[in-house]
Amino acid sequence: MTDAVAATKPVQSVAGAQAAKQVQGGTTTDKPYLKISGVVKKFGEHVAVDHVDLEIRQHEIFALLGSSGCGKSTLLRMLAGMDSPTSGKIILDGQDIVGLEPYERPVNMMFQSYALFPHMTVAQNIAFGLKQDKLPKDEIAARVDVMLDLVQMRKYASRKPHQLSGGQQQRVALARSLAKRPKLLLLDEPLGALDKKLRQETQLELANTIEKVGVTCIMVTHDQEEAMTMADRIGIMSEGRLLQVGSPTDIYEYPNCRFTAEFIGESNMFEGSVTVDEADRVEITSAELGGVVSVDHGITGPKGMHVWASIRPEDVRLDRKPVPAGPNMAAGVVENIAYMGSYSIYHIKLASGKVVKTVVPSSRWYDAGETAPTWGDQVYVSWRTDAPVILTM
Ligand SMILES: Nc1ncnc2c1ncn2[C@@H]1O[C@H](COP(=O)(O)OP(=O)(O)OP(=O)(O)O)[C@@H](O)[C@H]1O
Ligand SMILES: [Mg+2]
């Protein structure tokens, strides 16, 4: 890491994407459009969704993120009306929708595996839901027309799904969902069927299309990059509970628990106990570090309180020469190096056996007039007092 970069808390690439989104999506209002209160879903004894409270603003793109089986699809299915909550309330645009059948709800869901009708053309697929709703013919034609342009599929209007690429099929599925002009669009792993590269290309395009239409959207994914790229806000779910809700930047910079810190991005977690607690300085003594983590912000808790200090790998500085003894540093040995081209990920083993990960730009050593450390070398890790986030659970 160059000195200039190390001197400020790094601005994540997500922050840039987020700033761009805020300009585009400037119409978001603060009034909740969708209000989920105390929603519980049990399957027998198993609690799949556990007292979820969530407010979504109109025109917002909200991503539900969590590992497999944490209850994401179940929550969406309750919004769509395919499952009913065991208890709790769901209010959409002032209307209680819990008792409504799926077709009575102004909600459209695009499934984890969106199956297009293979025998229908692109245009017919888009028109399908509108025909079912018995809209007038010219209204259907007009809406299909708008959708074909929106997802840039006009050229392919008369093709069948098997004559389209995966990305094109995904766009048709989206057009089919949007054609009905739902108040709420639910996307369950919308890009799950695409390979990694196509998925990345499609993420921004999909978010732009949703924003252009101005539909309020909840999407489910277990891909954190996808959530970071597409969503205005993210909700982190684990075992049926919503652990944290915030902007991508908030969630990354200020995780509120170990689960979030380790689920979103990478984190070095040092277990320890509070030994100093002053207004502008908290110190945690950690056997794993073999020293003290000093933070210029954070919790106030009693001395001896059991906590964790989370430090992002890109905030950890790596040096060959000894750094001054004190808090926020440790000596270690290079155990592993993953060379990624423009940067490397170093695994540094401390005396306690704890391994610290650090992201080091390849220019770091060149700029310092040094050669890069290699396996077995003695090195020093350190970080600034604003880098650690203190977590109590
Ligand atoms: N109809 C059902 N009957 C019984 N258990 C169910 C039912 N549907 C879901 N579950 C259970 O509820 C939990 C949550 O399932 P859900 O499908 O919501 O997970 P998910 O977060 O969408 O996971 P994934 O990322 O794998 O799609 C799981 O443990 C699942 O086995
Ligand atoms: Mg699911």
Main attributes of the structure:
disordered N terminus; 20 strands; binds magnesium ion; binds adenosine-5'-triphosphate; five-stranded antiparallel beta sheet; single chain; alpha+beta; 393 residues; Rossmann fold; OB fold (Dihydrolipoamide Acetyltransferase, E2P); six-stranded mixed beta sheet
Radius of gyration: 25 Å
Quote the beta fraction: 25-35%
Class by SSE composition:
alpha+beta
Mean pLDDT: 87
Which hetero compounds are present in the coordinates?
A: adenosine-5'-triphosphate, magnesium ion
List the helices and strands and how they pair.
Layout: H1 3-6, H2 13-24, E1 32-43, E2 46-57, E3 61-66, H3 72-80, E4 87-92, E5 95-96, E6 107-110, H4 122-132, H5 137-150, H6 166-179, E7 184-188, H7 196-213, E8 216-221, H8 224-230, E9 233-238, E10 241-246, H9 248-253, H10 258-263, E11 268-278, E12 281-286, E13 291-295, E14 306-311, E15 317-319, E16 329-339, E17 343-350, E18 355-361, H11 363-367, E19 378-382, E20 389-391
Parallel strand pairs: 3-8, 3-9, 6-7, 7-8
Antiparallel strand pairs: 1-2, 1-4, 4-5, 9-10, 11-12, 11-14, 12-13, 14-20, 15-19, 16-17, 16-19, 17-18
This protein binds adenosine-5'-triphosphate and magnesium ion (MG).
Residues 72-73, 112, 188 line the site of magnesium ion.
Describe this structure in words.
By secondary structure, the protein is of the alpha+beta class. It has 2 domains: 13-259, P-loop containing nucleotide triphosphate hydrolases (Rossmann fold, 3-Layer(aba) Sandwich), CATH 3.40.50; 268-391, Beta Barrel (OB fold (Dihydrolipoamide Acetyltransferase, E2P)). 27% of the residues lie in helices and 33% in strands. The protein contains 11 helices and 20 strands. It has helices spanning 3-6, 13-24, 72-80, 122-132, 137-150, 166-179, 196-213, 224-230, 248-253, 258-263, 363-367, and strands at 32-43, 46-57, 61-66, 87-92, 95-96, 107-110, 184-188, 216-221, 233-238, 241-246, 268-278, 281-286, 291-295, 306-311, 317-319, 329-339, 343-350, 355-361, 378-382, 389-391. The protein has a 6-stranded mixed sheet with strand order 6-7-8-3-9-10, with helices on both faces. Strand 9 and strand 10 form a beta hairpin. The relative contact order is 0.12. Residues 1-29 have low confidence and may be disordered. The structure holds adenosine-5'-triphosphate (ATP) and magnesium ion (MG). Magnesium ion binds next to helix 3.
